[in-house]
Specification:
Blueprint: H1 2-9, E1 15-16, E2 26-27, E3 29-31, E4 34-36, E5 43-46, E6 53-56, H2 60-79, H3 82-98, H4 100-111, H5 115-132, H6 135-138, E7 143-148, E8 151-159, E9 162-166, H7 174-185, E10 189-193, H8 200-211, E11 219-221, H9 226-234, E12 238-244, H10 247-259, E13 263-267, E14 273-276, H11 282-294, E15 306-310, H12 317-325, H13 345-360, E16 364-367, E17 386-389, H14 396-399, E18 406-412, H15 415-424, E19 427-428, E20 431-434, H16 438-447, E21 453-455, E22 471-472, E23 475-476, H17 483-489, E24 491-499
Parallel strand pairs: 9-10, 9-12, 10-11, 12-13, 14-15, 14-20, 15-18, 17-18, 20-21
Antiparallel strand pairs: 1-2, 3-4, 5-6, 7-8, 8-24, 13-23, 16-17, 19-22
Bound molecules: nicotinamide-adenine-dinucleotide.
C-alpha cells in the first residue's frame, strides 16, 4: 500500500500527502487557478484493490468559490480572440500527447483498466481536443446579403457563459475531454465535477491546460457526489450541463437541470447487441465479440454485452467460450493483462447478483468468472469473463445493463427476429452486425432503431468530426456531444439584421406597417 500511495503522492500538485490525521493522500480542488485542499472531513475512497487515495466532497463555500471564479473569468475569456483560444488548445493537444503515458498510468492506478486500454482512453479524448482546434471554422455563423434593399442578415455563434460537466468513472480522461475543451474553445468557462472514483486524470489534465495558457478561473474543478450534483443543477449562473453516466443519475440531472432553465445533454446507459449472421467471417467475428464484450472488464457504455446468434451461427458458441477463457485477468499495470478489476466491491457484488439471476431464471452459465482469484491482488474487485446462454428478453440479466465482463447470448432463426429484439430493447446506444453480405448489412443499418451502428465494427464510436449519437433511453437532450453538435450545444445564436442606406434614400415618414 505504501508503495502505491507514494506513486500518488508524487503527483503533489493536486494531492496533499496527508491530512485530517490520515496517511492516505487526499486529492485537492482546483479553484481560480490553484490546487487547494478541501476543508471538508467527508471522503470517498479510491480503491479497486486497496485504498490509494481519498476524494473530498467539496463544501458549499468551496463550490460557491469555484462558480464565482468561473463567472469572473467569463467576460475576458469570451472576449479573447478566437485565434488566441485556438492557440491555447493547440498547445494543449501537444501537452496531452507528450504526457499521454503519464495520464494513462494515473488512470490504471485509480480505475484499474489495463495500461494499453488507458492509453486508448486518453487518445480518444485527445482527438476531441484536436477537433476543438478547428473552432475557427466550426464556430462560423451564417450570412445572407441583400435580403432587401441595403439590408443584410447575419448570425454569430456566441458562448453561453458558465457551463458544467459531470463525468462517470469508466473513461477518466476521454469523457472530461468531451466536455471542457469544446466548451472553452467556444469562449465559455467551465466547472468540472469528475467522477469521485477517478479524479486524478482530470486533475493532471487541468494542470496541462493551465500550462497551455488557459487563464485562471476558465476551468474550475470540484469533487463530490449528490450535493455537488444538486449544486450544479440548481445554480443560476450555470447555463448548460453535460452529463455522462448511468440512467438513474442522468434522468435525475436532466429533469432537475431543465427545470432550472438549463440546457442539458445526458449520455446514459446501454445494452449493445452484436448480431452475428452465419455468413460472417467467423475468425474475425469471434475475436471482435470477445474483445468488445470483455475489454475494460465490460465497463464501457459501448461494450458489446449481448450477442444475438442467427441461424447456424449458434454453432460457434463453444469456440466463443474457448476464446473468452483464454483472456488473462490481472491488475491493469501487470504485463499481459487483458482485463482488470471492477471499480468497487459494490460493482462486483451487483455483477455477481445479475449472473446469479440468470441461473435462477433458466439461463445457462457457459463460463463463470464469479469465483476468480488473482494472485497478489486478493482484495481486488475481479470478475472473470462470463458467458450466459439461453437468455430470453424477459430475463433480468438481459433487461439490466450489467457493466461487467459478462456476455449474454440470445439465439434467433432470422435477421428479422434479431432486429425485432434489438428494437424492443429500450436502449439505443450502439449495435453491430457481422456479415459478409452487403444487402444484409444495409437492411440492418436501416431498420435498426439504434443511434450508432457498426458493420463488422464491434464498437462504433464516431470520431469527433461526427457526434456521439446514442438514442432512445441512452440519451436525453437534443444536441449531442462533440462534432458540430457539440459546438451548437455550447453556443447560442445571435442574428443581426443590418441596414446601411445611401444618404439620399432616407425615410421621409414613419413606416408603421410590417415590412413586406
Ligand atoms: P454514475 O451515474 O454512477 O455516475 C456518474 C456521475 O453522476 C458521477 O459524477 C456521480 O458522482 C454522479 N452520480 C451518481 N449517482 C448519482 C445520483 N443518484 N444522483 C446524482 N448524481 C449521481 O455512473 P458511473 O457508474 O460512474 O458510470 C457508468 C455508467 O455510465 C454506465 O451506465 C454507462 O453506460 C454510462 N456511460 C455512458 C456513456 C455514454 O456516452 N452513453 C459513456 C460512459 C459511461
Amino acid at each position: 500500500a505504501s508503495q502505491v500511495s507514494s506513486k500518488v503522492k508524487s503527483n503533489s500538485a493536486w494531492y496533499s500527502a496527508s491530512s485530517f490525521s490520515s496517511s492516505v493522500p487526499a486529492v485537492k480542488l482546483f479553484i481560480d487557478g490553484k490546487f487547494v485542499e478541501s476543508k471538508i472531513g467527508t471522503w470517498v475512497s479510491i480503491a479497486t484493490n486497496e485504498v490509494i487515495g481519498r476524494v473530498p466532497q467539496a463544501t458549499k463555500a468551496e463550490m460557491d468559490a469555484a462558480i464565482a471564479s468561473c463567472k469572473r473569468a467569463f467576460p475576458a475569456w469570451a472576449d479573447t480572440s478566437v485565434l488566441s483560444r485556438q492557440q491555447v488548445l493547440l498547445r494543449y493537444q501537444q501537452l496531452i500527447k507528450e504526457n499521454l503515458k503519464e495520464i494513462a498510468k494515473l488512470i490504471t492506478l485509480e480505475q484499474g483498466k489495463t495500461l494499453a486500454d488507458a492509453e486508448g482512453d486518453v487518445f480518444r479524448g485527445l482527438q476531441v481536443v484536436e477537433h476543438a482546434c478547428s473552432v475557427t471554422s466550426l464556430m462560423m455563423g451564417e450570412t445572407m446579403p441583400s435580403i432587401t434593399k441595403d439590408m443584410d442578415l447575419y448570425s454569430y455563434r456566441l458562448p453561453l457563459g458558465v457551463c458544467a460537466g459531470i463525468a462517470p468513472f469508466n473513461f477518466p480522461a476521454m469523457i472530461p475531454l468531451w466536455m471542457f475543451p469544446m466548451a472553452m474553445v467556444c469562449g465559455n468557462t467551465f466547472l468540472m465535477k469528475p467522477s469521485e472514483r477517478v479524479p486524478g486524470a482530470t486533475m493532471l489534465l487541468a494542470k496541462l491546460l493551465q500550462d497551455s495558457g488557459a487563464p485562471d478561473g476558465t476551468l474550475n474543478i470540484i469533487h463530490g457526489q449528490h450535493e455537488a450534483v444538486n449544486f450544479i443543477c440548481d445554480h443560476p449562473d450555470i447555463k448548460a450541463i453535460s452529463f455522462v453516466g448511468s440512467n438513474q443519475a442522468g434522468e435525475y440531472i436532466f429533469e432537475r437541470g431543465s427545470r432550472h432553465g438549463k440546457r442539458v445533454q445526458a449520455n446514459m446507459g446501454a445494452k449493445n447487441h452484436g448480431v452475428v449472421m452465419p455468413d460472417a467471417n467467423k475468425e474475425n467475428t469471434l475475436n471482435q465479440l470477445v474483445g468488445a464484450a470483455f475489454g475494460a472488464a465490460g465497463q464501457r457504455c459501448m461494450a458489446l454485452s449481448t450477442a444475438v446468434l442467427v441461424g447456424e451461427a449458434k454453432k460457434w458458441l463453444p469456440e466463443l467460450v474457448e476464446r473468452a477463457k483464454n483472456l488473462r485477468v490481472n491488475a491493469g499495470d501487470q504485463p499481459g493483462a487483458d482485463l482488470g478489476p471492477l471499480i468497487t466491491p459494490q460493482a462486483k457484488e451487483r455483477v455477481c447478483n445479475l449472473i446469479d439471476s440468470g441461473t435462477k431464471e433458466g439461463a445457462s452459465i457457459l463460463l463463470d468468472g464469479r469465483k476468480i482469484k488473482v494472485k497478489g491482488y486478493e482484495n481486488g474487485n475481479f470478475v472473470g469473463p462470463t458467458i450466459i446462454s439461453n437468455v430470453k428478453p424477459n430475463m433480468t440479466c438481459y433487461k439490466e445493463e450489467i457493466f461487467g465482463p459478462v456476455l449474454v447470448v440470445l439465439e434467433t432463426e432470422t435477421l428479422d427476429e434479431a432486429i425485432q429484439i434489438v428494437n424492443n430493447n429500450p436502449y439505443g446506444n450502439g449495435t453491430a452486425i457481422f456479415t459478409t453480405n452487403g444487402a444484409t448489412a444495409r437492411k440492418y443499418a436501416h431498420l435498426v432503431d439504434v443511434g450508432q451502428v457498426g458493420v463488422n465494427v464491434p464498437i462504433p464510436v464516431p470520431l469527433p468530426m461526427f457526434s456521439f449519437t446514442g438514442s432512445r433511453s441512452s440519451f436525453r437532450g437534443d444536441t449531442n456531444f462533440y462534432g458540430k453538435q457539440g459546438i451548437q450545444f455550447y453556443t447560442q445564436l445571435k442574428t443581426i439584421t443590418s441596414q446601411w442606406k445611401e444618404e439620399d434614400a432616407t425615410l421621409s415618414s414613419p413606416a408603421v406597417a410590417m415590412p413586406t
